[in-house]
Amino acid sequence: MKTSRFLTGLLLAASLTAPAQAKPTATDPAANAELRAQLQQAEQNLRAAREQLLKSARELARIQGQLGEDTPFSQAMGLLVDPRRAALGVSIAPGPLEKGRQRGVLVTGVTPGSGAEKAGIQSGDLILSANGQSLELAEDARPGPGLTLRQALRELEPGATVALVVERGDKRKTVSVVAQRQEGPTTLDFDIERFGPRGDLLLPRIPAEGGVPPPRPGPLFGRLMAGPLGGPGFQLARLDEDLAGYFKTREGVLVVKAPPVIEGAPALKSGDVIQSINGQPVRNPVDLLDQFFSLEPRAPLTLGVVRQGAAISLQGRVPEPPLPG
Amino acid sequence: MNDLSRSLSELPELPPPPGGWARLSQRLDAREALRRRGRWAGGLALAASVLLAVLNLPVAPVSPAPAGAAPATAVAGLIQQSQALEQRLAVLKSEAGVWSGALAGNAAGLQRDVALLDVQLSDLAFDPSADQRAAEVLWQRRVSLLNRLVSAHEAPTLTPATMTTTTTAGLGGDTAEAEVLEL
Mean pLDDT, 10 residues at a time, over chain A (325 residues)? Predict the structure, then answer.
């Protein structure tokens, strides 16, 4: 097993997950201007490199997929660097064999915050079909259920909906799962470990207990998180029994402190209770922020709010986060 | 939440029985050997063993694991830990008293990392020639990341008297005092 530290700087440069943070230190205006010009040129170079990387990553994934030669590393890199790729948010394994048939695929893990989690899928569920395509196949069927499902999900883009028939215990249900990208603002820091002929694994490093670096802005990952929404100035609280009585509603999430989260509408105030976001009911503070961060900058935003006992609607747009640097 | 996902979420909780994953894994490991003995016999035996594992029925003691089987056993244990952490996380999320943009941003980073592990695990799980140590390493990381997420969601506390949000552990070690809410 070969272990190597991923060249964070290289990845950062390639995927543009972190902005150029350089700030001119020279006090001479001419030197400042020169540094600014250099910075601009470097940013242009990074954009070009990113485009090339994305193009290559997509091409690699396409060819590997056609050849049936996907590797774990290529899958992970594709998901990481390609903003058009999304996932349902499950880890899967072969389902049981029954009477010479493979019964679907087994959900061995549900990615926290994913579309699968939001749809109520749980580890241990059995996926029996996807978008009408049965995953209950003869034992010797090729491709088998796993490859069939992964091929069906290969071209998923953010927002795509997949209908899954899921079995839990002796009950079956059809659920709609929205594919989404899971973005994070943290600095990318990975190990690569090599196992056998199928190549490398991309292994995220585990942040030390009690502390990770503060979120860093980036043009691709977590732009909204890098703005005021992702700072300590956005504080939300659950409505407990006492607070519900005081704020005259039992539904929603209490705003303790809010930055400007909506453009073109009156600002949120401390004491507001957010009950819905773009028509979707808000269940708890974690759910609300998840929904905020799944929005694109400049996307339409409507908040259903109770203010001093009266229901109001705030309609505007998601703010554009500040440009890095 | 739409009607379908709501109806799914209303299904009865069926946590895996203690040791269920280990038993299931042992039986799935036997797949190759069973197939060598014949498809029919193998299929029937595996179906029976999966049924036993799922139903948590007592089974005869298995033979000592051959050399090289340890990673599979380790993986089964890690999957079990991972699922327990997922259940804990779901409870913590639904019961969260307070949450902030900073904590959510950091948690999103961890969730993104879990997603990267999950695509790799899904690939390896269907590769009969995959090195079990690779799966073990991936599951170890997944469990560690889930532990961090659980810590992050356990950390925020709300003191109603002052409406102060304090994070004492977990992600970011962020200690942030919110503005006092005038009640």
Answer: 42 40 59 86 81 70 70 83 86 92 94 93 96 90 86 84 94 94 68 76 80 45 61 80 80 88 88 92 85 82 92 90 56
Strand A300-307 and strand B98-100: the pairing is unpaired
Q: Tell me the fold of A90-178.
A: Pdz3 Domain (2.30.42)
Q: Phi/psi of residue A281, each to 5°?
A: -65, 150
Does domain A223-317 fall under CATH 2.30.42.10? My reply is yes
Contact B114 A111 (CB under 8 A): yes
Decide if A90-178 and A223-317 have a common fold.
Answer: yes
User: CA separation (Å) from B175 to A101, B39, B127, B166, B170?
Assistant: 54, 60, 45, 5, 11
Chains A, B: CB pairs < 8 Å: 314
List Cβ neighbours of A116 (8 Å cut-off, separation of 6 or more). A88, A89, A90, A107, A110, A177
Q: How close does chain B come to A63, measured CA to CA in Å?
A: 16
3-state secondary structure of A304: strand
CA gap A152, A108 in Å, rounded: 19
Cβ within 8 Å, pair A270-B181: yes
CB contacts of A122 in chain B (<8 Å) are 86
Q: Say yes or no for a CB contact (<8 Å) between A256 and B138.
A: no
**What ipTM is given for this predicted complex?**
0.73
Q: Tell me if A175 and B5 make a contact (CB, 8 A cut-off).
A: yes
Q: Is B154 in contact with B170 (CB distance < 8 Å)?
A: yes
| Residues 6 or more apart whose Cβ sits within 8 Å of residue B169 | A209, A210, B151, B154, B155
Chain A nearest CA to B65, separation (Å): 21
Burial class of B71 by CB neighbour count within 10 A (0 to 12, 13 to 18, 19+): middle
Whether the model pTM is above 0.80: no
Is any Cβ of chain A less than 8 angstroms from the Cβ of B84? no
Residue A182 confidence (pLDDT): 81
Q: Where are the domains of chain A?
A: 2-81, 90-178, 223-317
Strands (DSSP E) contained in chain A are: 2-5, 90-94, 97-98, 101-103, 105-110, 126-130, 133-134, 136-138, 161-168, 171-178, 190-194, 200-204, 235-238, 253-257, 273-277, 280-281, 300-307, 310-317
